[in-house]
Design brief:
2 copies of one chain form a homodimer. Chain A has about 475 residues and is an alpha/beta fold. Chain A is built from 16 helices and 11 strands. In chain A, helix 5 (about 115-135) runs parallel beside helix 14, helix 6 crosses helix 12 and helix 15 crosses helix 16.
Chain lengths: ~475, ~475
């Protein structure tokens, strides 16, 4: 008698299809340079190729995989191409992908220690490792009153930091009147949009966000911050939270954390340091100057899913005082109560972020650190910085171009001297052509091209070829 | 000459290690019933087995995989065991795991349409499919003013719904004074803790959250809701947002959405329907009564990562009016501007949720729907409900036990009649023993056992064995 139909994929089928998928991914990386980096489809084109109705009965796995190849791939912008120089990297690597696969396979929930102790403890452990690896202050270690947690993104991390700061401000106010809903938030005019988003989400009012002016290098002016704080105090407002950036998204500007930190400490302002992409550079001692003064920070965040070969999502968030964070986000209904939580001996990470459920994300980070070792990670960060500096050098040497900002690490902001239209044309042509992908920003009101090196497999030849192509487009501009 | 050392995992190494990981997962599912479902480790035990310092040099992949087996596995609570009946399911399946693996491999960012058009369009497409599959109102289709998006969890979804409601309330207020920060939020006393968490995050004040009383079946009393709304209006407050639950976490109670919806509509209150686990049941027409009245909802959420064989995270969130949501969450800095966004012809999902970056999560959902087809999904949902009803029947037939609440779908709340201590003892013994895992809640102040069926591979024999074990513990209680 035949087995009754179960519809499930059996373990043996999983082995077979799993191998096919692993091979597909390996093949993908081997042929990735053959695709245009930026997808060339038009809005609606991918949807139009998909059947309008969901399938009534199941389909063979092979047809699904074939459709991925034929229908989905044309709509992919290849973030893992070594010719991807746009936005920021979101780099992946073999060990990360396989660690993440194990997380999917185990399918555990890490909302409480007790719902999978290893999920919580490995996360705490690896985040402690990173404190040492990056030279961060000891107060971020889990053995202190602080500690680290993996968030999905730096946007969520800054929101949590802001909520904890709000909690601390309200909690420490002698009377309700003292703050009266008028908490003020400070960041630079070049900071990431996620800070404004967080202020809006937290209901603190966009009108209470101060975008502090920047200097000629696009870094926050501490004296302008101080002036604004004093003005706000005089206006009866309560300065509450500041976000300093280690490597702004637009131009990789480095806010002077030490000076900002001193001002924040004197004014009892929560200092959050957002080092989303550039924080990874601190793996190398010679780049640790970027975080000089980080000991003043109440919270800190960097994203291994940007530049540390760990596929999205994996943003590491540290606080010096976990109590403020947990007080804001903790709600303990009966159905989540358990002995371990009641004992107070464990961390329940659900109280450290917005969602309740959580994935076993530390696995992929653990796999990456163990695969590369500190040595391997440092090697590639140094290599990316070196390639970027080479590119910056070429730009400087070419009379048609100019650097638009300092290039301290792995991002070059530059422009053709002929103005916005020329730069737009160079960018559009390169991106339409598909050999490489780069994006833009505006600095001092001028359209500026951004060239960011950080994809896992980017090598000297890719950067050299990119510069050659940029030069060619500059040529054809003149013709 | 030897190749210079790159530290990266080559495509060929990825093939080899990838196969090992796929086999490890297949083996894991084949032997999963041999593990105690609830991890038996003590706090700190897993960490103590890990090296205190990160590795200076890289390690072979095989040792990492061996450590997963030897050091991590003992700290795993096996959510994918067919003997897992705790909390709620967070079920996974072969096609989901492989779809997710492809998402890791492609490593694209879906924050904007242009950063990978297929990532946005497949998501929109599959979420439209689900509107049809679940019999949801047409206003949630992307072809209308509404549409769907994948969030990480129902907690984030309800936060987004609340923010959109707050935006609409402020936006539509003729004067600032009209609402004056005094927006009121309604949900039942049995609703999920995420609603209170959202209210706190949004800075709307826990004191403005009303937990409406429930009836004898733990469902919200509409007349009590109406009374409270009127009292709040008379007190000069502005009713803003209500969350009705299709299947509460505690006892699977079904709030009467139609009656609540009528009240909300008359009072211009945003109605969010949280169907996190139970929503999946609507795949079967005979269970659609649970969402009767959902056409009154302004937003709706259910989690394929609970009961629809799609591994975490995957929470589907729909709004009837996307403008309110996007207005709240949209901030467009220069470095994210692009032609497609400016044209208005595309969806940029970054404006539909808290984070900026986003993973290609629709791939796994697409794989699941195509692998099972509507037929296969319905088959398993029906089977889970049938097994649960069998269990409820056994409870009713046993004089020592009683049902503590109606069991409409896949959750049975029951208790031993001897009181809290007996129930605690039964639960602790079962969980310590490891044959199965179940958790508790409190209903009418009494400790109540929860038995939730929904893991992918749970079959009749697992449920029968669980009931046998529960009976045995009840026996030993009496001896």
């Amino acid at each position: 008698m035949p087995e009754p139909k179960t519809f499930h994929m059996t373990p043996d089928e999983f082995r077979r299809h799993g191998r096919a998928v692993v091979d597909w991914i390996a093949d993908y990386y081997e042929r990735i340079e053959s695709f245009p980096v930026l997808s060339q489809v038009k809005p609606g084109e991918i949807r139009a190729s998909l059947p309008p109705r969901p399938p009534d009965v199941g389909e063979p796995f092979d047809s699904v995989l074939a459709d991925l190849e034929n229908l989905i791939l044309p709509g992919i912008t290849h973030w893992q191409s070594p010719n991807f120089f746009a936005y920021f990297p979101a780099n992946a690597s073999g060990p990360a992908i396989l660690g993440d696969l194990l997380s999917s396979g185990l399918g555990v929930q890490g909302m409480l220690w007790s719902t999978s102790p290893a999920c919580t403890e490995l996360e705490t452990h690896v985040l402690d490792w990173l404190v040492e690896m990056l030279g961060l202050p000891q107060k971020f270690l889990s053995s202190t009153e602080g500690g680290g947690v993996i968030q999905d993104t730096a946007s969520s991390a800054v929101l949590c930091a802001l909520l904890a700061a709000r909690e601390r401000a309200i909690h420490s106010a002698p009377t309700q009147e003292k703050w009266n809903g008028k908490l003020v938030v400070y960041t630079s005019a070049q900071a990431h949009s996620s800070i404004e988003k967080a202020v809006k989400i937290a209901g603190m009012g966009s009108e209470n966000l101060r975008l502090i002016e920047v200097d000629e290098n696009f870094a926050m002016r501490p004296e302008a911050l101080l002036r604004q704080i004093e003005a706000d105090r005089q206006a009866g407002l309560t300065p509450c939270f500041a976000c300093a950036t280690v490597g702004t998204t637009s131009s990789n500007a480095m806010d002077p954390i030490r000076e900002i930190g001193c001002i924040c400490r004197e004014n009892k302002i929560w200092l959050h340091v957002d080092a989303a992409m550039s924080g990874t550079a601190a793996l190398c001692p010679e780049f640790r100057w970027i975080q000089d003064g980080v000991e003043f920070a109440d919270s800190y965040c960097f994203n291994p899913h940007k530049w540390m070969f760990t596929n999205f999502d994996c943003s590491c968030f540290y606080v010096a005082d976990r109590a403020a964070l947990v007080r804001t986000l903790s709600i303990l209904p009966e159905y989540l109560r358990n002995q371990a939580t009641d004992s107070g001996a464990v961390i329940d990470y659900r109280d450290w972020h917005i969602p309740l459920g959580r994935r076993f994300r530390s696995l992929k980070l653990w796999f990456v650190i163990r695969h590369y070792g500190i040595e391997g990670l440092q090697f590639h960060i140094r290599r990316h910085v070196e390639l970027t500096q080479q590119f910056a050098h070429w730009v400087k040497e070419d009379r048609r171009f100019e650097l638009a900002a300092p290039a301290p690490l792995n991002l070059v902001c530059f422009r053709h001297k002929s103005g916005d239209e020329a730069n737009q044309q160079i960018m559009d042509r390169l991106n339409r052509n598909g050999d490489l992908y780069l994006t833009h920003t505006k600095l001092n009101g001028k359209l500026t091209l951004r060239f960011c090196v950080g994809q896992t497999n980017t090598e000297a030849r890719h950067v050299a070829q990119a510069w050659k192509r940029i030069q060619e487009e500059a040529e054809s501009l003149q013709s």
